[in-house]
Amino acid sequence: MTNFEISGRQRILLMVGIVIGLICLAATYVTAPEAHHARFWSNYLHNSVFFTGIAVMAAFFLSASITAWAGWYVLFKRVWEAFGMFIIFGLLLMLVLALGNYLHLHHLYHWADETLLDPSNPEKFDPILAGKAPFLNKTWYLGGTIVFLGLTYFVMSRIRSLSLREDEGNDENFSSHRKMRVWAAAYLPIAGFGSAAMIWQWIMSIDSHWYSTMFAWYTGASWFVSMLALTILTVMYLKSRGYLTTVNDEHIHDLGKLLFAFSIFWTYLWFSQYMLIWYANVGEETIYFRERFDNYAVLFYGNIAINFVAPFLILMRNDTKRKWGSVGFVAALVFFGHWLDFFLMIKPGVAHAFHAGDHGGHAHEFMSGFTLPGFLEIGTMIGFLCFFLYVAYATMARARMEPTHDPYLQESLHHHV
Amino acid sequence: MANHKDIVYGIYDDETDLLRAVKVAHDKHIDIMDVYTPFPVHGLDPLLGLSESRLHIAGFVYGMIGTLTAFLGMTWIFTKDWPIIFGGKPHWSFPAFVPIMFELTVLFASIGMVVTFYVINGLGPGVVNPTIDLRLTDDKFCIAFDTHETSKGDAEAFLRSTGASEVHSKTI
User: Fold this and answer.
1) Separation between Cα atoms, residue A388 and residue A83, nearest integer Å
2) Running DSSP on this structure, what letter comes out for residue A307?
3) What is the ipTM of this complex?
4) Which residues, 6+ apart, have CB-to-CB distance to A328 below 8 Å?
5) CA atoms of A260 and A327, how far apart (whole Å)
6) Residue B31: inside a domain, yes or no?
7) Which residue of B has its CA nearest to A278?
């Protein structure tokens, strides 16, 4: 079998998933109108950022692999190309939020309230946000989203079309691959600086007064692990359907190693951020963790258990990185775990704004959708996941599943770890 | 050394020749005493029927001992032996212990594995290494047979038929 085909059953399943997601989004919008539909918009932001980030990381890792002259991944590079092509939809999803800042569709971002920046009104004037205003403003948010995701999509589509042109086979000097290498290398600094800047805008700025220099790395690592987990699950699924027959345990082993290593890398960044804030004990910084200790204890510690302890202990042995059962289990677990990690980054800040509305200042009570993901959150996630997979599979279906003329094809075929 | 071995060995110029020869020996059930290569050759271990090293299990145990040493040691020092307040933190401040727990895990695992490796292989200062051929540390590959297990004639015939560039005998 050469081209991937979406079977009728699979199409129906994905469509059902997307419909579930839409119903959950609509239900959230209708049932929770408080604070400008905060629950709906935070769910929308949460999933849009999560899946857009997975696409960005696929583009980034593909570019890094091309730049590094790596060869082992070539047999399943269509998977990363397909993930990367989702970015155009990621751009559309994030544009809704960027324009929503102007149209007051949502009030997720405290800094978007321009009355706080007026020094002539000492009642409301917020000197900290005024100081951050040159970066945290609507124009930057909109422009940054368009430029970063637009560039990512542009480079990704160049790499994709060069990769397809390569397969036509009349490319004796590897000129397609040489061009691809230039695009890939050029994208690396864009991915590095761009993702950091947009993580600050999209996620960190929800806690508008707070900042952490580790945050972009930590979030980027979370995206990266999720991307690896989804790659492993997709490759396994494609193999079970009879595609990617040349991908073997050696490739799974390397993907498993990356999953193991980057789970530890994520933990390292998570802990570095936590420990520095804990040690310095500056009130403006510790408030971030105080909030999560008090109201999100299950998720806060569960995050470490799922995303560090489980992959660390399960994937430590050589053979568990090769067995489908253990790698697949860990991949599914940390995929969900990092989705929870993003929940933990976004929801407390949103819930805070939510509570600023009622003037009692009482402690948070349990709120489904804010302190723990409810069914509507899970349903929304299923919808976004099915949408992401649908786009990825539709992209895969348009080209030969296994490349035929990649210069590193033989290296990947004979990959041995 | 009390028990000397009489060996027959062949020198190969290329690792693909070596792999092919080992495969032939494997199929014909000829007992190879050992194979010497200047670098790890992919695919050689399963052909020789070598089982996976258990050194990493020892490494895990050493690492856990290191983690516990750091954790219990610091707990005792900072709560019982010599409690000091740092930066207004409680005596038992777990986040501050984590970097030391990490460091001792790495230290114990690495030193423990090196020592275990040396002890198991009988390596140490002053050990005489019976070198078969100095070129085996550079660019040549070797298959050696013990003449007590494989007759000298069989071994030599095998080595020549599988493309060894040189065949020698030696007592080590």
Assistant:
1) 8
2) I
3) 0.82
4) A232, A233, A236
5) 10
6) yes
7) B95
Q: B85 and B63, same structural domain?
A: yes
Q: Do both B96 and B74 map to the same domain? A: yes
> Does the pLDDT value for residue A369 go beyond 80?
no
Contact B98 A278 (CB under 8 A): no
Contacts of A235 (CB under 8 A, 6+ apart): A76, A79, A244, A247, A251, A252, A255
Q: What torsion, rounded to 10 degrees, do the Cα atoms A66, A67, A68, A69 define?
A: 50
Same domain, B71 and B116: yes
**Pairwise CA distance, residues A311 & A326, whole Å:** 10
Quick check: is B140 in a domain?
A: yes
Question: Is a pLDDT exceeding 70 seen at residue B124?
Answer: yes
Chain A interface residues facing chain B, Cβ-Cβ under 8 Å? 271, 274-275, 278-279, 281, 316-318, 416
> What residues in B contact A318, CB-CB < 8 Å?
52, 56
Q: 């149209």: which residue's tokens?
A: A103
Is pLDDT at A143 greater than 90 in this prediction? yes
Q: Are A158 and A107 in contact (CB under 8 A)?
A: no
Same domain? For B39 and B63 the reply is no
Disruptive mutation site among A260, A272, A279, A282 for chain B (greatest number of B CBs within 10 Å): A279
Domain spans in chain A, listed from the N-terminal domain onward = 8-413
pLDDT band at A360 (very low <50, low <70, confident <90, very high): very low
| Sheet order of strands, B141-146 included | B34-36, B141-146, B6-12, B166-171
Task: Summarize the confidence of residues B2-31 as an average pLDDT.
Answer: 86
Q: How far is A416 from chain B (nearest CA, A)?
A: 7
Alpha helix ranges (H) inside B77-133: 94-120
Instruction: Kindly report the pTM of this predicted structure.
Output: 0.91
Provide the pLDDT for residue A1. 53
What's residue A316's pLDDT? 92
